Amino acid sequence: MKSIFICISHHDVQSGIKSKIESHSALKPVVFKSAAEILDPILKGERPILLVIDHPSVAEPIINYLSAVKLQIPMIFFAPETPVEPPLYPAMQVLGWVNPDNATARVADFISFMVPHEPKKPSPPGPALVPPPASPDVSKPDVPKIVRQEYTEIRWELLRGVDPLPVELFIKLGPDNYACIFKKGDTLASGNKDQILKGKKIEFLYVRKDESQHVLPY
Questions:
Q1: Helices then strands, each counted (H, E), the chain
Q2: Cβ(132)–Cβ(43) under 8 Å?
Q3: Could you report the per-residue pLDDT of 168-201, keeping only the tens digit for each?
């Protein structure tokens, strides 16, 4: 069973998100009280598929650690009000920002897109731990430089037959919010994601503008 780690100070929002995750047969919500508590299982090798965390109090120390060890875990940031121009972390996989008004719905959208729903089944044993990474020196981690990333849209069906994909491909979640769903080296059929795109009538994917020359000729 895949885990989603949650650390949000807003009790009602945290409860709503937890309930949405619990309704999914393949997911398990794990609630934490601090960044240190979240990092403990990550240091031991556990890999959640998503972090839903307060920004900046919880997000910043986690970003510092993940950046130092060059590890990417998808994240959604929660703030009382979504910043007009939110900071970008290009070295991280930030899926977007949420606030008390839209947090539960936005997280539910992510879950429904990335993890196909199945009927509820008895809970199997928890996920096995993978070997932990080498212990990094996180005393003075480098903070990633904040740069606004630009993207170019491309009709995804034009990429059929491009195997493997030469670049990462993204979906657009909102203004300046993009989620990577295909990594470099994947195929469109990876994890049946092409069928998910077709079923949800998504016509366009997005590529980083400085990498667009690798796919636009197709």
A1: 5, 9
A2: yes
A3: 888 887 777 788 888 888 887 776 777 777 777 7
- Residue whose tokens read 């503008």: 209
Does residue 101 contact residue 78 with C-beta atoms inside 8 Å?
no
pLDDT, the chain, mean:
81
CB contact at 8 A, 164 and 196: no
Is domain 2-114 in CATH 2.30.30.30, yes or no?
A: no
pTM to 2 decimals?
0.56
Q: What is the DSSP letter of 192?
A: G
Quote the pLDDT of residue 141. Answer: 47
Provide the residue ranges of all domains of the chain, joining segments of one domain with +: 2-114, 151-214
Nearest C-alpha neighbor of 94 from the set 81, 106, 102: 106
| Three-class SS state of 169 | strand
Spell out the residues 6+ positions from residue 28 whose beta carbon is closer than 8 angstroms to its own.
Answer: 1, 2, 3, 4, 21, 22, 123, 126
Percent of the chain with pLDDT over 90: 31
Task: List b or e across 58-97, with b for residues whose CB sees 16 or more CB atoms inside 10 angstroms.
Answer: bbebbbbbbbbeeeebbbbbbbeebeeebbbbebbbbbbb
Q: Order across the sheet with 27-31: list the strands.
A: 27-31, 2-7, 50-54, 75-78, 94-98
Reading phi first (left if > 0) and then psi (alpha if -120 to 50, else beta), residue 132 is in beta
